[in-house]
Amino acid sequence: MKSIQRSIKYRYVYITVASIILFICTGTLSALSYEEKNLPEKKTLVYKLNIKEDIGPAIWRQTKQAFREAEELKADIIIIHMNTYGGLLNDADSIRTTILNSAIPVYVFIDNNAASAGALISIACDSIYMSKGASIGAATVVDQSGNVVPDKYQSYMRSKMRATAEAHGKDTIISGNDTIIKWFRDPAIAEAMVDQSIYVQGISDTGKVLTFSSDEAIIHGYCEGIAKNIHDVLDLTGTVNYEIREYVPSGLESVIGFLVNPFVSGILIMIIIGGIYFELQTPGIGFPLGAAIIAAVLYFAPLYLEGLAENWEVLIFVVGIILVGLEIFVIPGFGVAGISGIILIVIGLTLSMTDNIVFDPSNNYTGGFESVIKAFFVVIVSILTSFILSLYLSKKLFTSTAGPFKDFALNKTQKKEEGYIGVEGKQHSLIGKTGIAATVLRPSGRIMVENEIYDAVAETGYIEKGTNIKVVKFITGQLYVNKI
Question: What is 152-195 written as a DSSP string?
């Protein structure tokens, strides 16, 4: 009897404990559910990148930075706001590859134009949206003058456009004995945007490069919708409760864009040449050389970051400077080394301003040569202007008694009548006397006359050590000699 009562007692205890645990769990779950319901809904993070200028190294570098930042922020969507007439194919291809490899969905909003390289980038995106009146296409490769380049370049662009369209996949439909392939973006249309000879039935006629308006792009699968702005694009995608973060170029990007301007590059070249000139006019190492070095860094660094200046082009410039320095300070006269140095300086400055294009004369492709000629013109004009200004300013600023930098130069004249003599009078008496070359004269060196050593210059040619010489003249403190 007692065992039965004990059993009933334990049963009540178990039921009571279980009820308490169930009550606690239910209350906890209710509280968690309440908290979850009242938590603010997570916003969709939209990262926006603007491409509103010609495609080039700067845009490619900004794209890399933007995609890297979007990944760090764990963005849900990347939107490219585009309005461009095209640009460099190699940079457009790099941007295209980045988009295709992105784990984050990438949309593009074409606000007016997506021509040439812009069309390639747009087709790489997961979804394309266009403003009313916008266009996409006209991806024929042209040179800087707008002339169509040979077919080998068009073939490369066709393959890129086709592969980009194919990257978005296809549907395979089995109908009876027939297999129908339906591309999400027809590769033939992408090719027709490059090559006027490609015929797409009902869409493009031979002899015309294909360009779609926004309405035509929707009909043929190259646009998902018409939008007025980025917010319309997000509405069309069904994105709600979103936050937009926009890529803003850093201060460095703005500085680089300013420095690669041809006008600014010309000013920097003038400072480089002018600094070297003024440094040669003054003893020691001072401000002019420092200015030239800073200008050289400001000239080459942005071009290097832009992908225009290669290592070997900068090296050519440096070698040119070294040769000119050797010619001035080491090798007497001015000959092969000096001329070679000047030529290398001009080549280095010129090629650093141009894109690294592979020229093929057999195809009569002159776009690269035109770019080189333009850069060469900027360099030559800048050098000549710098040289002329240096001559003028050195006289106006430093030697003029009214110049702002008159105190930097010694302008006082020490007249002979006042007892000032620049050299010993004894050397005047050596004219007509004979002696021997104490060292090799190339053309400067030392001579021995009447058992005393003097500095002298060979009037013509070189004079070997030990050769008999005759002093022929004495000008501005310098003895001149000839072989006997």
Answer: HHHHHHHHHHHHHHHTT-EEEEEETTEEEEEESS-HHHHHHTT-
Tens digit of pLDDT for each residue in 348-398? 988 888 765 433 443 344 445 666 787 888 888 888 888 788 777 766 655
Q: What is the pLDDT of residues 306-316, one digit of tens each?
A: 666 788 888 99
Angle between helices 367-393 and 262-281 (to 10 degrees): 40
pTM above 0.90, yes or no: no
Provide the β-strand partners of residue 457.
444, 480
Residue 102 neighbours by CB distance under 10 Å: 16
Q: Where are the domains of the chain?
A: 8-38, 44-249, 252-406, 416-483
CA distances from 203 to 145, 185, 223, 441 (A): 29, 14, 15, 83
At the fourth CATH level, which superfamily is domain 416-483? Nucleic acid-binding proteins (2.40.50.140)
What is the enclosing helix (H) or strand (E) of 475? Answer: strand 468-475
SS3 content of the chain, % helix, strand, coil (to 5): 50, 20, 30
Topology given in CATH for the domain delimited by 44-249: 2-enoyl-CoA Hydratase; Chain A, domain 1 (3.90.226)
CA distance 377 to 161: 36
Question: Residue 190's closest CA among 238, 224, 157?
Answer: 157
